[in-house]
Write a structure and sequence with these properties.
Helix content: 55-70%
Number of helices: 6
Shape: elongated
Distance between the termini: 120 Å
Largest sheet: none
Structural class: mainly alpha
Length: about 230
């Protein structure tokens, strides 16, 4: 039967009822003792506050403990029944058991009171189960998948290194890599990247005057003028 681990492992189903009844009775006695001790001391006369507090605790704390024990016993019975029917243990068993317990305890007050008590019991158990799951996940160590996912780089994340070209080795940060040498040309050994362009004033002046001389000799019919 699949079983989810919570804050503490619970007893198996036959013994879970006894465990829940005893725990609920102890909790009711302790809480009722604190509450009724304060209330009894406040309602007692000024000279007998201690005796009034003890009398209130002896009279009312066991009653509250018994009410808690009844609630815990009914809850454990519903939980064990749902576990046997569904053949698995999950938070839905506790939520449905809390709603059923609240409705059963309010059965003498009518259907409307049963429905409201069932809703309150289900909501309270849902909050308790949600807090338990959240605490379990917070205290659990990270798994191997979570560690691998945290180490992966998100391609949509902004760059953390300065500049447009983040450094990938030991070079300067933010500088582009040096351009690689151009590929060799396969057309007759001519390399367009190997030619160098030089600028000269003499060459430009001679090249500028040569078209004028050629144009003058072409249209002047009597030869060049001296």
């Amino acid at each position: 039967m699949p079983r989810q681990s919570g804050l503490a492992d619970r007893e198996p189903c036959p013994w879970r009822i006894v465990d829940d009844v005893g725990g609920a009775f102890c909790m009711g006695n302790i809480g009722g003792g604190i509450w009724h001790s304060i209330k009894g001391a406040r309602l007692a006369p000024s000279g007998a506050r201690l005796s009034g507090s003890l009398s209130a605790v002896q009279a009312r704390a066991p009653v509250l403990g018994g009410q808690f024990a009844v609630w815990g016993g009914l809850f454990a019975c519903c939980d064990c029944s749902l576990t046997a029917i569904r053949q698995k243990e999950d938070p839905w068993n506790s939520i449905v058991s809390g709603a059923a317990t609240g409705g059963i305890l309010a059965g003498r007050a009518g259907p409307r009171a049963m429905a409201s008590a069932a809703v309150v019991g289900g909501v309270l158990l849902a909050l308790i189960e949600g807090m338990g799951i959240m605490m379990t996940r917070m205290m659990a160590p990270p798994s191997a998948d979570d560690m691998l996912a945290s180490q992966r780089m998100d391609p949509t994340a902004p760059p953390t290194a300065g500049g447009l070209f983040p450094s990938s080795g030991g070079g300067a940060r933010g500088l582009p890599p040096p351009p690689s040498s151009p590929p060799p040309s396969s057309s007759g050994g001519f390399d367009p990247y190997a030619t160098e362009t030089t600028f000269s004033t003499e060459g430009s002046s001679s090249s500028a005057s040569s078209p004028q001389q050629q144009s003058g000799s072409s249209w002047w019919p009597f030869g060049s003028s001296s």
